[in-house]
C-alpha cells in the first residue's frame, strides 16, 4: 500500500469521541498471544491537550479501527505524559485486549469441578472468567479472522464445536492466574484462547483450510504481482528446541468398579507430523526424543493430542520467514492480520510456498511512514493437538 494512501488508525471511546492523529504506532499481534500489544503516541495541538488528558486514562476501554475495520476492544493499561518546557505535551499509551485483567488476576482458589461424566469446558472456564465480565464463548476462527481483515475469506475451517470440548475435572490452585488455569485446560483440547473483534472469548485452532488473503514477493521481475518485501528478508531454519519424536506416557484410566487398564504410551515423530518440512532433521543424530509423563492423559487419544501439542508448539519456531511490507493494508484491500494464509515468493532462493502469518507488527513514525513486519511459518507447522468433535 502506498504511503500516499496511509491507513487511518482511529481510537473510539464509549461517548463517540475519536482520536486518529498519532505521532507513532507500535502494534504487535501474534496469533498465539491473545493480549496483543498496542503502543500509541500523540502530540495534540494546544487546543486539544485538555481533551486528550481527560480521555486518555488508564483503565479506559476503547475500540480501535484501521480504515474503519474494527480491530477489537483494547484496555488502556499505562499512560505516560511528557511535558516540554515550552508547554508541548506528548501522551504515550500502552494497551492490551481486555483479557489482560483476568490474565493478571487470580482465579478463585475455591473454584473446582469434578463429575462422573465430562462437562463442557466453557462452563468451567466461565466460572473463572465470569467475575471479570465475560459471559460467552465462540469457536468460529474463520469468521473472526475475516472480520479483522475487513473482507470475507473463503473456505475457512468449520467452527470449533464448543460443546464438544469437555473435561471431567478442574481444580484451581492457590495463587494461580486465570491465564494459567485456562491454559492447563484448553491446551489439552487442541485449542488456544483468543478474543474476537466483538470482544467474545474464543477457543480456536489455526485455520489451514482458508483461501489465501495475500501474496508477498521478493522479485526483480515487475510482472510478478503482490506486495513487495522491503529491504532484507530473514529466514531462520533451526533444530533448536526441536525433536525427532515426542513420547507421552499417561496414567491408567481407572475408576472405581472398573477393570484395571494399562497406561497409554504413544509416540509421534517429526516426519509424521510435518512430512513436507520436518521440524527436526539431522544426518549426524537422527534420534532426539522428547519424553513426557502426563498424569492427565488417561487414554490413547488424549496422549496422542498431548504429543502433537508438544511438537507443534515448538515447530512454530523451526522455520520462520520475517520481513517488512509497506503499509497496514495489503494490495488485496485486507488489513494485515495474524492467522491468515498467503503465498510467499522469494526468487533469489527459488522459494514459493503458502504460509501462515503467525504475527504482524505495525509500526508508524515520521521517518519511515507505515510499515508491517510479518512473521510467516509453513502450513501445519503450528499444531495444538486434536480438537475433540472435529471442527
- How is the CATH topology of the largest domain named? Phage tail protein beta-alpha-beta fold
Task: Report on the biggest sheet.
Answer: 6 strands, mixed, barrel
Mean pLDDT: 92
The gyration radius over C-alpha positions equals 23 Å
State the low-pLDDT regions, or none: none
The CATH class of the largest domain turns out to be Alpha Beta
Number of domains: 4
Q: Which of globular, elongated, flat, extended, rod-shaped describes the shape?
A: globular
CATH hierarchy: architecture of the largest domain: 3-Layer(bab) Sandwich
* Number of discrete helical segments: 7
CATH superfamily of the largest domain: Baseplate protein-like domains
Q: Spatial order of the strands in the main sheet?
A: 13-14-18-21-20-19
Sum up the structure in keywords.
391 residues, alpha+beta, Phage tail proteins - horseshoe like beta roll fold, Phage tail protein beta-alpha-beta fold, 4 domains, 6-stranded mixed beta barrel, 7 helices, globular
Concise synopsis of the structure shown:
By secondary structure, the chain is α+β, with helices and mostly antiparallel strands. It has helices at residues 49-55, 100-104, 121-129, 141-149, 178-186, 270-273, 300-315; strands at residues 9-12, 18-19, 24-30, 33-42, 61-66, 69-83, 89-96, 112-120, 137-138, 166-171, 192-195, 201-204, 214-218, 227-237, 245-249, 265-269, 289-293, 319-326, 341-346, 351-365, 369-378. The chain folds into 4 domains: 3-98, Roll (Phage tail proteins - horseshoe like beta roll fold); 102-204, 3-Layer(bab) Sandwich (Phage tail protein beta-alpha-beta fold); 214-238 and 318-378, Phage tail proteins - horseshoe like beta roll fold (Roll); 245-312, no CATH class.
Amino acid at each position: 500500500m502506498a504511503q500516499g494512501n496511509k491507513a487511518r488508525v482511529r481510537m473510539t471511546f464509549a461517548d463517540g469521541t475519536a482520536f486518529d492523529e498519532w505521532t507513532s504506532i507500535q502494534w504487535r499481534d501474534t496469533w498465539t498471544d491473545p493480549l496483543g500489544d498496542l503502543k500509541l503516541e500523540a502530540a495534540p495541538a494546544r487546543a486539544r491537550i485538555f481533551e486528550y488528558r481527560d480521555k486518555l486514562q488508564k483503565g479506559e476501554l476503547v475500540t480501535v479501527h484501521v480504515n474503519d475495520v474494527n480491530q477489537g476492544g483494547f484496555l488502556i493499561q499505562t499512560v505516560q505524559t511528557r511535558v516540554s518546557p515550552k508547554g508541548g505535551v506528548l501522551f504515550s499509551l500502552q494497551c492490551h485486549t481486555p483479557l489482560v485483567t483476568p490474565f493478571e488476576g487470580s482465579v478463585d482458589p475455591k473454584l473446582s469441578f469434578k463429575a462422573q461424566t465430562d462437562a463442557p469446558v466453557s462452563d468451567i472456564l466461565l466460572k473463572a472468567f465470569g467475575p471479570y465480565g465475560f459471559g460467552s464463548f465462540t469457536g468460529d476462527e474463520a469468521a473472526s479472522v475475516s472480520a479483522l481483515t475487513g473482507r470475507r475469506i473463503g473456505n475457512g475451517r468449520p467452527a470449533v464445536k464448543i460443546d464438544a470440548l469437555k473435561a471431567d475435572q478442574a481444580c484451581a490452585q492457590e495463587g494461580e492466574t486465570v491465564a494459567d488455569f485456562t491454559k492447563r485446560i484448553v491446551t489439552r483440547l487442541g485449542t488456544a484462547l483468543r478474543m474476537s473483534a466483538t470482544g467474545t472469548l474464543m477457543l480456536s485452532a489455526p485455520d489451514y483450510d482458508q483461501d489465501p488473503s495475500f501474496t508477498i514477493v521478493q522479485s526483480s521481475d515487475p510482472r510478478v504481482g503482490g506486495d513487495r518485501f522491503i529491504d532484507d528478508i530473514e529466514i531462520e531454519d533451526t533444530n533448536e528446541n526441536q525433536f525427532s519424536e515426542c513420547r507421552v506416557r499417561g496414567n491408567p484410566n481407572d475408576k472405581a468398579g472398573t477393570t484395571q487398564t494399562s497406561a497409554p504410551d504413544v509416540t509421534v515423530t517429526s516426519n509424521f507430523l510435518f512430512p513436507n518440512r520436518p521440524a527436526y532433521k539431522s544426518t549426524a543424530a537422527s534420534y532426539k526424543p522428547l519424553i513426557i509423563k502426563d498424569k492427565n492423559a488417561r487414554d490413547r487419544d488424549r496422549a496422542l493430542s498431548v504429543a502433537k501439542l508438544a511438537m507443534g508448539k515448538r515447530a512454530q519456531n523451526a522455520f520462520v520467514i520475517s520481513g517488512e511490507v509497506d503499509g497496514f493494508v495489503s494490495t488485496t484491500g485486507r488489513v494485515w492480520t495474524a492467522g491468515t494464509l498467503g503465498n510467499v515468493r522469494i526468487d533469489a532462493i527459488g522459494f514459493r510456498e503458502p504460509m501462515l502469518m503467525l504475527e504482524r507488527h505495525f509500526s508508524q513514525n515520521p521517518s519511515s511512514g507505515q510499515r508491517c513486519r510479518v512473521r510467516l511459518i509453513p502450513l501445519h507447522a503450528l499444531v495444538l493437538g486434536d480438537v475433540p468433535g472435529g471442527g
